[in-house]
Input
Amino acid sequence: MTTFTLLAPTTRAALLADLEALWQCFDEVVATLGPDDWSGKHGQHWTFADVPYHLASFDREVIATAIKGGLTVQTLEQLQRTEAEQDGWKEIQFTPRPTATTPEQCLEQMWASRQAIRDAFAGLSEADLDRPVFLPLVGLGWVSVRLALETCCSHTWNHLMQLRCWMKCTTLLPGPAQTQRALSYFLASFARNLKREQAAQTHLTAVMEFSGLDGAVWTLQVAGGSCHLSEGADARADLVIVQSPETFVTTRTGIENPTLALGTGKVKVQGWRNLATFEKLFPITSLDFAPAPRETWDGRMAKRAEMLAQTHAA
Output
C-alpha cells in the first residue's frame, strides 16, 4: 500500500490560515443566499442547505474526531468498510438530516464543527503535526495530523467550488494559496490511486497546468507500475492538459461533461493520442471522499501507524 505523500510539508500557521480563509470564503458565498434560495438544486439529490450540513458531519466525525482520538482509535473503527457499509456510512452521516432542519441550523452545526477542529488543533505543536491519526477514508487510513488537516482544507475547497458553480456565482473565489494547496492535494491523490496494473505496462509523462494561477503546474510521471508527482512542467511530456481550477472540479464531479469541456476549449490538450491512456491510468470521476472498503485493510496500515508513532517520538 503506497503512502499518500504531499510534495512538501506545511507549517501549522500556514495550514490554519488557509483553513480559516476557506471557511471565511464559504461563509461569504452562502451569505448571498436569500431565505428562498436555500432550496435551490445542488446536483441530483442535494439542495444548497445540504452543503453546510455535509461539511458539519465531515469536519466533526472525520477530522475533529481523528485529531482528538489519535492512537486511541478503537480497532473496529480502524477497520475499513465494504461497499455496502460505505452506503450505510453515508446514510448515517448524511441522509438522516430531518427535512425540517433549517438552513440556519445547518450553518450552526457547521460552525460548531469548525470550532471542534480549532479546539483539537489548539494544543498541537509543530512537531505534533507528524503524529498519527486514523481517517477511515479511501486511500488514507493511518496518516499524519498534517495530512488530516490537508484533507479538511481540500474537502472544504472542493465543496466551496461546487457550490459556487451550482449557484452560478462568478465572484468570491478562494484565494490562490488555498486553491494551489487543494490542487496539489488532489494531484497527489491521482498519483496515490493510480491503476497499477495498467501502469505496469505504461510509460507516460503528463503535465497538469491550471490557468489563472502562477506556478500551478504539476508533472505526473508513470513508469514501472508507479507514479511520481513533481511540481513544474517536464519539457518532454507526452501529454499536457490545461484547464482552470473550476473546470477541473466540474469535470471531475459530474457537473460538466468532460467531452463537452474539451469541445468548447475549456480543457486544452497537447498530445491527444495519449489522453485515453491517461484516463485509464487515473480513472478518477469524483473529488469527493468516501469511506474505504474493508478489502483495502491490511496489516501494513498498522505498520504505518507504528512508523508514524516512532517518527513522532524520535
User: Anything to note?
Assistant: Residues 12-189+289-313 form a domain with the Four Helix Bundle (Hemerythrin (Met), subunit A) fold (CATH 1.20.120.450). The longest strand covers residues 204-210.
